[in-house]
C-alpha cells in the first residue's frame, strides 16, 4: 500500500475545490475514494523510543490534532470523522467538530459555554428541548430574543448566550444577524448561530461576528437523508479545544460510517445547496406571482393558488422588502419555504395529492419533501406546510404542486373555509 503525504491546501482555493481536496493530506493509501475505517481502537507504536505516555497536561486536541492525527480510541477521534472535520473546517472558515446529531452538537455547545441566561426566538423546537434539559440540570434561564425588558430583567451579560437560528425553521425566513450580534456584543454575551438552513456558500455567520455556528449536518451537509450529524465551528481556538476535550466525555461522536457518508456528501455540497436554493426560489416566485394575481400567471393558476394559499414565507420574499437579506445571504436563499394554506384540512390533505414530494419530516436531501408541520411540532399553526425543495427539475415540482393544490381545492370547497388570523 503506497503511502502518500500531502500538505494542507491553501484556504484561498475556492470552496468547490476544497470540498474535493482539503483532506488529500490525510491520504495514506492509493484509494481515490477514502477507505471506511471501522476500528474503535488503534495500535500504539512498537518503536520503544517513541512509546511515551502523553503529557496529560497538554490539551487533548493538541495530541490528536487534525494536522497530525494519531488515533487512539474512536470516542476521541477516528479517521473518517477527522477527514470530514478537515473538509468542513476549510468550507466553514473555522475549526470544526462533528457530533452524533445536530442536537448533540447544540447540547455540547451549551454544556461548554454554561450560560446563566439564553435569549432565543421560536424556531426549531428540538433546540428548546435541549435548553429545557439544562434548565432542569442547573437552572438555565430562557428568555425571548426580541424583548429588551426580558434581557434587562435577566441581566443578560458576559458568559450568557444569544442564540440565533437563521434562516428559521419552518418558514425559511432570514434573521438580521448583524443586528443581534451588535446587541449581544454590547453586553459581552456569546453569539451562537444555528445555520442549518443555509450552509455555505449561502451565508457565513462567523464573518458577521458569530462566535460559534452549529449545523444539523443531517440536513444539507449529509444531503441524502441517510446520516445523522451535528457540526460546531468556531474561530476561537480556546473554545474549540474546550469543546474537543468535553466531547470525549459526552461521548456524542459520529459513527465511522456516518463520517464516511459525510465525506461522500460534502464533496457535492455547493452544487446541491445552490441548485436546491435556486429551485425553491423559482417555485416561491411562481407561487407568489399567482397568489398576488400578477401578470404572467394564467387565470387557472391564479384561481387555484388564490383559492388555496393563505401565505408564503421564504427569505426571497423578505429580500424584496429588506436590503440586509441579500447582504447577509450573498450566496442565495435556502431550499426550505413555508406554504400556509387557507384551511387546516387543505394542509392535511395536500401531501397525499403530490407525486414528487415525499410526506416526511426533515429536510436537506436531494429529494423534495413536504411536511404538514403539525405532525412534528405542536406549537405550529395547523395550516402550515414546510416544503424542502430537492434537486428535481423545478418545473416538474411546480406542476406537481399545482395539481395537488387543485385537488385539495376540489376536496375542500372554499365556502366551507373559515379563514382565521395567522399566528406564524
Ligand atoms: C434548525 C435545526 N436545528 C437543529 C436540528 C436538529 O438536528 P438533528 O436532527 O440532526 O439533531 C434541526 C432538525 O430538524 C433543525 O431543523
Automatic annotation (TrEMBL):
Transmembrane feature ranges: none
Record's keyword terms, sorted: Pyridoxal phosphate
BP term (GO), one: transsulfuration
N6-(pyridoxal phosphate)lysine, modified sites: 219
GO molecular function: carbon-sulfur lyase activity; pyridoxal phosphate binding
Cofactors: pyridoxal 5'-phosphate
GO terms for cellular component: cytoplasm
Database matches in InterPro entries: Cys/Met-Metab_PyrdxlP-dep_enz, Cys_met_metab_PP, PyrdxlP-dep_Trfase, PyrdxlP-dep_Trfase_major, PyrdxlP-dep_Trfase_small
Keyword RNA-binding carried by entry: no
Family membership: Belongs to the trans-sulfuration enzymes family.
PANTHER family reported in the protein's UniProt record: CYSTATHIONINE GAMMA-SYNTHASE (AFU_ORTHOLOGUE AFUA_7G01590) (PTHR11808:SF35), TRANS-SULFURATION ENZYME FAMILY MEMBER (PTHR11808)
Record protein name field: Cystathionine gamma-synthase
Species in which this protein is naturally found: Microthyrium microscopicum
Amino acid at each position: 500500500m503506497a503511502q502518500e503525504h500531502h500538505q494542507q491546501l491553501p484556504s484561498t482555493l475556492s470552496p468547490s475545490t476544497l470540498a474535493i481536496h482539503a483532506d488529500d493530506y490525510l491520504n495514506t493509501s492509493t484509494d481515490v475514494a477514502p477507505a471506511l475505517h471501522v476500528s474503535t481502537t488503534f495500535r500504539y507504536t512498537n518503536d520503544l523510543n517513541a512509546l511515551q505516555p502523553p503529557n496529560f497536561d497538554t490539551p487533548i486536541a493538541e495530541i490528536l490534532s487534525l494536522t497530525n492525527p494519531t488515533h487512539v480510541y474512536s470516542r476521541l477521534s477516528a479517521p473518517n470523522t477527522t477527514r470530514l472535520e478537515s473538509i468542513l473546517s476549510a468550507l466553514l472558515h473555522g475549526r470544526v467538530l462533528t457530533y452524533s446529531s445536530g442536537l448533540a452538537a447544540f447540547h455540547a455547545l451549551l454544556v461548554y459555554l454554561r450560560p446563566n441566561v439564553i435569549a432565543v426566538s421560536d424556531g426549531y423546537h428540538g433546540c428548546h428541548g435541549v435548553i429545557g434539559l439544562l434548565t432542569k440540570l442547573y437552572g438555565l434561564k430562557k428568555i425571548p430574543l426580541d424583548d429588551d425588558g426580558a434581557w434587562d430583567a435577566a441581566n443578560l451579560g458576559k458568559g450568557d448566550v444569544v442564540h440565533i437560528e437563521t434562516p428559521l425553521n419552518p418558514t425559511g425566513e432570514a434573521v438580521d444577524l448583524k443586528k443581534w450580534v451588535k446587541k449581544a456584543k454590547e453586553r459581552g454575551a456569546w453569539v451562537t448561530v444555528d445555520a442549518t438552513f443555509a450552509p455555505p456558500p449561502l451565508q457565513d455567520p462567523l464573518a458577521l461576528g458569530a462566535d460559534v455556528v452549529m449545523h444539523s449536518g443531517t440536513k444539507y451537509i449529509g444531503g441524502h437523508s441517510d446520516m445523522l450529524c451535528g457540526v460546531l465551528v468556531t474561530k476561537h481556538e480556546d473554545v474549540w479545544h474546550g469543546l474537543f476535550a468535553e466531547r470525549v466525555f459526552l461521548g456524542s461522536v459520529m459513527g465511522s460510517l456516518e463520517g464516511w457518508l459525510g465525506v461522500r456528501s460534502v464533496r457535492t455540497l455547493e452544487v446541491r445547496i445552490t441548485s436546491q436554493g435556486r429551485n425553491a426560489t423559482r417555485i416561491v416566485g411562481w407561487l407568489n406571482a399567482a397568489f398576488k394575481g400578477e401578470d404572467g400567471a394564467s387565470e387557472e393558476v391564479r384561481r387555484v393558488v388564490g383559492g388555496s394559499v393563505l401565505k408564503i414565507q421564504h427569505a426571497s420574499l423578505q429580500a424584496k422588502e429588506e436590503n440586509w437579506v441579500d447582504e447577509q445571504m450573498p450566496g442565495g436563499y435556502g431550499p426550505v419555504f413555508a406554504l400556509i394554506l387557507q384551511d387546516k384540512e387543505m394542509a392535511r390533505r395536500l401531501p397525499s395529492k403530490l407525486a414528487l414530494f415525499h410526506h416526511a419530516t426533515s429536510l436537506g436531501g436531494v429529494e423534495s419533501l413536504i411536511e404538514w408541520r403539525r405532525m412534528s411540532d405542536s406549537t405550529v399553526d395547523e395550516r402550515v406546510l414546510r416544503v424542502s425543495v430537492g434537486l428535481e427539475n423545478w418545473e416538474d415540482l411546480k406542476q406537481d404542486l399545482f395539481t395537488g393544490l387543485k385537488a385539495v381545492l376540489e376536496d375542500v370547497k372554499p365556502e366551507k373555509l373559515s379563514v382565521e388570523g395567522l399566528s406564524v
